């Protein structure tokens, strides 16, 4: 992902080849070409190209951010004492009951004439268990990315109120890494390596020197998708420990996304079209990378199936397509709130139309709904009206 602020000719921007590296959004060969070269890697270094910014102005000039900071201070929870880790988890029973969420919306009946056509209930259940492990593993890796990014925001954002809030998010993200890591280790017997598409996105967000790109990539895009994904799993699962864990994490995540939208709205209102075009391209490429990672190619490989033999069918599975679209239900309205959809002749709007996710543009943005996620309230449904 290459982003520059000195492009004055928007015509040089915009096609899929230049932004996402392929002309066809569903080019499976290009998607699968991105894979982990070292599945045993335990340490990964990325150059953090940023300047730490001190501010000597301690006046409270952004009341909305200060209000969010106060919510963060009172919304803290302790993963050790507030969750009952003694609860046993019967993986087969849990995943069988949560099969839709566990299988990422895949309909087994559509695969009768494919390389997995011989699978019975046993194999599909095993796939569901592996996919649950994989999904929670990507949550875990994304939360570590958020931990590093929010520490970077604390350094780089020039506003006092934003630094205070970002510091509370660092604590939140450490807690999220703790709970997902512990759940995978103690209840699921381990997890999966970071997906290559997710790792590339996290690397790009960390490497960019501009603080607003860290906000956009992590707070709005990655955290926005995570908030929707947590909501679906929370609604579908009946496993009590996971359900409560997700509810606690969602209460934090909603604040995190709102923090990004509140901060960027002020900045993006003052940007030129050329600067906004860079942000639109960034938001599009980030969305595509997150979309690509949900093909779960590592799960198919662990199940002994070559991804290239089954993913063409997965891409055409209407149930899975709907499930994936819903994961963008938090991202699109927030991009609209920030003015990203319609600047530069609605460039990002057209890209999200191609992805099939523009229908969410008029759903509540996270600033409007953040209070609904506070602990003590019933968790909002990921689909309004349900």
How would you describe this structure to a colleague?
It is a single chain. This protein is mainly alpha-helical and 386 residues long. The chain has a single domain, classed as Ferritin, core subunit, four-helix bundle (Ferritin), CATH 1.20.1260. The protein is 60% helix and 0% strand. It has 17 helices and no strands. Helix 6 runs antiparallel to helix 9 and helix 11 packs parallel to helix 16 (343-355). It is globular, with a radius of gyration of 20 Å. The protein starts with 15 loop residues before the first helix and ends in a 17-residue tail after the last helix.
Main features:
Ferritin, mainly alpha, disordered N terminus
CATH topology: Ferritin
DSSP strand count: 0
- Helix/strand/pairing category: mainly alpha
Please report which band the strand proportion falls in: under 5%, 5-15%, 15-25%, 25-35%, 35-45% or over 45%. under 5%
- Pick out the low-confidence regions: 2-12
The chain-level mean pLDDT equals 91
CATH homologous superfamily? Ferritin, core subunit, four-helix bundle
Helix content: 55-70%
Task: Return the CATH architecture.
Answer: Up-down Bundle
Question: What global shape is seen?
Answer: globular
């Amino acid at each position: 992902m290459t982003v520059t602020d000195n492009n004055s000719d928007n015509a040089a921007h915009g096609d899929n080849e230049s932004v996402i590296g392929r002309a066809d959004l569903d080019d499976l060969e290009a998607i699968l070409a991105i894979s982990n070269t070292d599945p045993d890697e335990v340490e990964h270094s990325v150059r953090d190209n940023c300047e730490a910014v001190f501010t000597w102005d301690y006046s409270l000039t952004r009341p909305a951010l200060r209000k969010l900071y106060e919510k963060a201070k009172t919304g803290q929870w302790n993963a050790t004492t507030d969750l009952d880790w003694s609860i046993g988890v019967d993986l087969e029973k849990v995943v069988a009951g949560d099969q839709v969420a566990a299988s990422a919306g895949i309909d087994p009946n559509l695969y009768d004439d494919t390389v997995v056509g011989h699978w019975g209930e046993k194999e599909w259940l095993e796939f569901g268990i592996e996919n649950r492990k994989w999904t929670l593993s990507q949550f875990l890796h994304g939360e570590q990315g958020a931990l590093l990014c929010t520490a970077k925001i604390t350094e780089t954002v020039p506003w006092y109120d934003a630094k205070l809030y970002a510091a509370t998010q660092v604590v939140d993200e450490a807690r999220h890494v703790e709970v997902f890591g512990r759940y995978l280790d103690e209840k699921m017997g381990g997890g999966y390596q970071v997906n290559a598409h997710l790792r590339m996105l996290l690397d790009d967000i960390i490497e960019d020197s501009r603080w607003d790109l860290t906000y956009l990539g992590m707070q709005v895009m990655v955290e926005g998708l995570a908030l929707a994904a947590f909501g679906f799993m929370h609604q579908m699962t009946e496993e009590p420990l996971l359900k409560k864990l997700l509810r606690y994490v969602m209460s934090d995540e909603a604040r995190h996304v709102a923090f990004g939208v509140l901060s960027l709205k002020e900045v993006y209102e003052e940007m030129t079209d050329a600067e906004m075009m860079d942000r639109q391209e960034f938001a599009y490429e980030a969305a595509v990378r997150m979309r690509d990672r949900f093909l779960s190619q590592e799960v198919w490989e662990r199940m002994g199936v070559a991804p290239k033999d089954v993913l063409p069918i997965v891409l055409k599975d209407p149930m899975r397509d709907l499930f994936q679209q819903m994961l963008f239900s938090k991202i699109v309205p927030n991009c609209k709130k920030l003015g990203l959809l319609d600047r530069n002749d609605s460039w990002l709007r057209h890209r999200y139309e191609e992805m099939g996710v523009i229908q969410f543009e008029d759903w509540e943005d996270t600033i409007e709904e953040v209070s609904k996620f506070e602990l003590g309230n019933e968790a909002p449904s990921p689909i309004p009206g349900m």
